[in-house]
Design a protein that fits this description.
4 helices, 11-stranded mixed beta sheet, mainly beta
């Protein structure tokens, strides 16, 4: 049997996005394919370009070695520095479908000291993952057990970056903050989006700055310009310091539909470290008076100090439709101060006019507040339509339930228990439980004022949950809208009272179907409601999404440049509040239902066909140079095409070029 070389198309070149795989059984000398995966994210970072996707297989990874980042004064177990080019052309690091990758940093080597501070050996900050790039998307990863010596070390640290999208990331049991954003002196940086992320059980014992002093759930700090960072559907509990902390942040941050419980405690809620603060949402700022944060539809309970705390802020925030319950200190504390540099001169500063705190539709249960209304003989902004303005004394009878495992359980991992802090729903959203939802007849129903959020009755309700409406927490999203000015943040609070976005599928084609190479899929479309458009990620080359009016159609032909395999894609609305997503799978095959899509081209000689193959590439293949040959499952079979009668289709790689060849 002779050997015929048939050019079936270019699989990878600079014109197409690439797909790579990382596995606990991989090797960084591998090709990064499904069957021959890399071993580390550092290797993936070294090869990816804008638009590429890295699928991370399930299992536990134990990074040990670190990379020294001299300009940041730290080291890290994983550094993600390769960048996308826009929100629509990101680099994606995604958990493989139905698998859970865990990055356990317990064996990470702490960086060698390079300086001292106050006579203490200042061992270098050594964080788990450091992100220092732009337009990067991480989804479905678990980060844990980052160690420390003197300095508090972070699970996921973002610095000098722009538009990082973190989705369904769970950072826990680190010796420092779960997530830390530092955009100091970055100018156009920021604009990060945290969707359905969790940060819990982080504790820095006896650190250089105190016992439990720096292990926040989420921290955003030092930014003075650029784009606005946002949180949606996130949870923080049992972090030794605070749930959220924005100290020294000079640019607005938005937090909505998020939850803070039991912060200021450690060891599953059994101890209060001596230097821990313990606030749920600690929305402070720098001394510029420009960081007007937005905190809306959030819930804080059982925190050691305050549920919602302004932390000496020099700029008033917008606090809309929040619920604060049973926090040990106060439910809301709007302390403001004057400063000389970073030194507090006067506590209890009265913020006035547009700089005053704007508080509307909030529940304090009980009504214990500080620096609100008349407090210690001084009059502060009191807001309107809050329980304390309306002389409403909330009681258990106002709620469907005030019971949850988090109210009574300590010494156990709450993430494993059925409750509001338990396992998330399949789409990443918060468990749908009755905890702190208003019930029929509640004295807080229809007592609010319109702040631009959806409501069902004659007026908005008080608190985070609107009676008569489902509590919708965003599921997956592929787009991030980030504001670049504080005025844009202010305009968000006057958004229309629209319902959540929806995607409704129509058409004969299935959202999950098989297609032969070179043939067209059976098209289908989604009708969009309560949103302005849609985007899609993950489709094979030649198949795309097209928006016409409010219909988003998936159609096209699977190009020969595609690798055979499953392509998991996600369609997401844009401009919704919140956005929603739908997922499916396009399987690209040589032989769907027994029908081959390949065509045979005859040729007079193998050398001629080799030349024909080379024409598909950016530069001609050098058939005298080494090649690697793989079967269609990505398994390496040798360094030459078979000449022993084994006909079939093979993958040939040379450098960055990968082509498909049929042997006859």
């Amino acid at each position: 049997m002779g050997v015929k070389w048939i050019a079936l198309g270019l699989l990878a070149s600079s014109a197409f996005a690439s797909t790579y795989y990382v596995s606990t059984t991989g090797n960084d000398n591998n090709a990064g394919s499904f069957a021959s995966p890399f071993a580390t994210l550092n290797k993936a970072n070294a090869v990816v370009s804008a638009g590429d996707t890295v699928w991370i297989r399930g299992g536990t990874y134990y990074p040990t070695d670190t990379t020294y980042l001299k300009s940041d004064g730290m080291s890290a177990g994983i550094v993600l520095s390769a960048s996308g080019t826009s929100d629509d052309n990101r680099i994606h690091y995604l958990a493989y479908p139905n698998e859970q990758p865990v990055f356990d940093f317990s064996k990470l080597k702490i960086g060698v000291a390079y300086s001292t501070s106050n006579g203490v050996d200042s061992v270098m900050y050594t964080n788990g993952i450091v992100i220092r790039g732009s337009y990067i998307h991480l989804k479905g990863l678990e980060i844990c057990n980052v160690p420390m010596v003197h300095n508090s070390n972070v699970g996921v640290y973002i610095t000098r970056s722009k538009h990082i999208f973190l989705e369904q990331i769970n950072s826990h049991h680190n010796k420092g903050a779960g997530f830390f954003v530092n955009e100091k002196n970055t100018g156009s940086g920021g604009g990060h989006y945290f969707l359905n992320c969790d940060s819990h059980d982080n504790y820095d014992p006896n650190g250089r700055q105190g016992d439990g002093e720096n292990a926040d759930g989420f921290g955003v700090h030092y930014q003075t310009s650029g784009d606005t960072t946002k949180f949606y559907g996130c949870r923080a509990w049992w972090n030794s310091d605070d749930g959220w902390d924005f100290i020294f942040q000079g640019f607005p941050v938005v937090v909505e539909n998020s939850y803070a419980m039991g912060n200021g405690y450690a060891s599953y809620g059994t101890v209060h470290p001596s230097n821990a603060n313990g606030n749920g949402f600690k929305a402070g700022s720098d001394t510029s008076g420009t960081a007007h944060h937005v905190i809306r539809q959030c819930v804080a309970w059982k925190n050691y100090s305050s549920g919602f705390y302004a932390n000496h802020s020099t700029a008033g925030n917008k606090w809309y439709n929040n619920t604060s319950y049973n926090n040990l200190g106060t439910q809301y504390n709007m302390l403001a101060s004057t400063f000389s540099g970073t030194t507090v001169l006067t506590n209890g500063e009265v913020l006035t006019g547009d700089n005053a705190h704007d508080m509307k539709n909030n529940i304090a249960y009980p009504n214990k507040t500080a620096y609100i209304g008349t407090y210690n003989g001084t009059t502060y902004a009191a807001g309107s339509n809050n329980t304390w303005n309306l002389n409403i004394t909330p009681s258990e009878s106002d709620f469907i339930s005030v019971s949850d495992p988090s109210m009574t359980t300590t010494g156990e991992d709450l993430s494993t228990l059925a409750g509001i802090l338990g396992p998330r729903q399949a789409d990443g959203s918060i468990p749908d439980v009755d905890f702190l939802k208003l019930k029929s007849g509640s004295q807080m129903i229809d007592k609010g004022t319109n702040v631009g959020l959806s409501y069902a009755g004659s007026a908005p309700d008080l608190g985070a949950y609107e009676y008569g409406m489902s509590s919708v927490i965003a599921s997956s999203s592929s787009s991030v809208v980030a504001s670049s000015s504080s005025s844009a943040i202010a305009s968000e609070t006057t958004q229309s009272s629209a319902s959540a976005a929806t995607l409704t599928k129509h058409g004969a084609g299935s959202s999950s179907q098989c297609v032969n190479l070179g043939t067209s899929i059976e098209s289908f479309y989604y009708t969009i409601a309560n949103a302005t458009g849609a985007t899609v990620i993950g489709l094979p080359d030649g198949i795309s999404g097209t928006l016409s009016g409010m219909d988003f159609t998936i159609a096209g032909t699977a190009l020969a440049s595609n690798a055979v395999g499953n392509y998991a894609y996600t369609v997401s609305t844009t401009g919704g509040s919140p956005n929603v997503s739908k997922s499916g799978t396009i399987t690209v095959s040589e032989n769907c239902n027994g029908t081959s899509s390949s065509t045979t081209q005859s040729s007079a000689s193998a050398d001629d066909d080799r030349t024909a193959i080379a024409e598909f590439s950016a530069q001609k293949m050098n058939w005298n140079a080494p090649i690697q040959v793989f079967d269609m499952q990505g398994r390496l079979i040798g360094s030459a095409l078979p000449r022993d009668g084994r006909s079939g289709v093979y993958l040939v790689r040379q450098g960055s070029h990968l082509i498909r060849v049929r042997v006859k």
